[in-house]
Design a protein that fits this description.
Helices cover about 70% and strands about 0% of the residues. With about 80 residues, it is mainly α. It has one domain (about 5-75). The mean pLDDT is about 80.
Length: about 80
């Protein structure tokens, strides 16, 4: 039995109250997405994340570790 078939079987056995609770819980995990609106806002947020994140190319890990230890432990 596939996962989809198992899910359909479980839902088909629920009474109305159980089904209402299931739907309420399901909506918490998968809220409806407004596909027409909000896209511009999400694109702006994504662009902002891309702008503030960048790779650190020349990172001397040994130096960084030594500085962190010195700062934390005074060694």
């Amino acid at each position: 039995m596939s996962t989809r078939e198992r899910a359909i079987d479980i839902v088909s056995k629920m009474n109305e109250n159980q089904l209402e609770g299931f739907v309420a819980m399901f909506e918490l995990f998968f809220p409806e997405v407004d596909l027409d609106g909000g896209l511009e806002e999400r694109e702006k947020a994504f662009d902002e994340i891309e702008r503030i994140t960048h790779p650190i190319l020349d990172l001397d890990y040994d130096k960084e570790l030594a500085e962190a230890r010195e700062e934390k432990y005074g060694r």
